[in-house]
Design brief:
alpha+beta; 8-stranded antiparallel beta barrel; 4 helices
Length: 331
């Protein structure tokens, strides 16, 4: 009797062990199915994100590249106080010179001209890529920079390139908008020898980020437009080119053949459209491949100023569009 009881208890113990093992196996299988028991299995929420991203990319199947050409007079840089680039430069070189002659501390900046909040506004024509030819321009362009005793000086185009010719534009194809510097600072000024033979300090303002609202209009009587928003890092010293292009010997020969730098490319997001582009989605990349000479110093016999000569050339930008709907060819 005692032996039978021991045997029965052993069977009971064995049954309990098997039951516990079975439950453990069940839980393990359930965890693996839910992605918790295998580190190589992607959680369901990550799968959803991947499916959404893949779905978005699958919609952006149309691509097209355009060229925007903005003449120098149609590109305007303004500061928060309302002053333009010419007043900013003339104010700086005048006050820096006065501080030097008086023996006072070095003039560093005028707080009325803030980099943060400064803006550029442009209005250019849009063309197909095969309508525009950009060529190297190592010789730049010659300008007369003195009122008396005429003096010809060679200045460079930004990027050392220029548009070969500008074809007739279609008034319903254009690219315009505004970019605002959201952060920036002043680097130490650069001292150059000018066409008058004297030294001048040229300010070195640096933009570090910007916000842009732009319109790319492609036909439809000017009402079929793509709205572009861009907010990103954008590191660009727009004073360096001014110093490079205006340094010279007293004979008018440039001390450097280095061209003013071009701004960096930047991305944009399509946030909507009008006319034929209602419901459009996508992205844009904008890259500048050629630019103007920038401001040029002029000597009127007694004063050096940036106010007499206008920048020469055009700004040429490549606009690459990726969207969820077909885009028309450029003119």
């Amino acid at each position: 009797m005692k032996m039978m009881m021991n045997l029965s208890m052993s069977r009971y113990a064995l049954l309990m062990v098997l039951l516990v093992a079975s439950l453990a196996f069940e839980v393990s299988c359930t965890n693996v199915k839910n992605g918790m028991g295998n580190t190589n299995t992607m959680p369901e929420d990550e799968k959803d994100v991947e499916r959404k991203l893949t779905g978005e990319n699958d919609k952006l199947i149309f691509t097209k590249t355009y060229i925007a050409v903005t003449k120098a007079e149609d590109f305007v840089r303004l500061f928060p106080n309302g002053g333009d680039i010419v007043s900013f430069l003339d104010d700086f070189i005048t006050k820096a010179r006065a501080a030097f002659l008086s023996g006072g501390p070095t003039f560093k900046s005028n707080p009325e001209f803030q980099i943060q909040g400064s803006s550029t506004t442009q209005n250019g024509a849009v063309f197909a890529t095969d309508s525009i030819e950009v060529v190297n321009a190592p010789d730049g362009v010659e300008v007369d920079v003195r009122k008396t005793n005429s003096r010809i000086k060679q200045v460079q185009f930004s990027g050392n390139r220029k548009i070969k010719f500008t074809p007739m534009d279609d008034p319903f194809y254009f690219f315009h908008g505004q970019c605002v510097a959201t952060s920036g600072f002043l680097e130490p000024s650069m001292e150059i020898r000018t066409i008058a033979g004297s030294l001048r300090s040229i300010p070195q303002p640096v933009i570090t980020s910007q916000l842009c609202k732009l319109n790319l209009c492609l036909g439809g009587g000017g009402f079929s437009c793509i709205a572009i928003y861009s907010g990103s890092a954008f590191v660009f010293n727009f004073g360096k080119g001014v110093a490079l292009n205006n340094e010279a010997t007293s004979s008018g020969v440039s001390l450097t053949s280095v061209a003013p730098p071009l701004p960096p490319p930047f991305p944009g997001t399509i946030i909507g459209g009008t006319g034929a582009f209602e419901g459009i989605e996508g992205s844009v990349t904008i890259a500048t491949i050629a630019g103007t000479t920038g401001p040029i110093l002029f000597f009127d016999g007694s004063t050096l100023t940036f106010d007499r000569l206008k920048p020469i050339g055009s700004i040429v930008q490549v606009i690459s569009v990726k969207s969820n709907m077909p885009l028309p060819p450029g003119p």
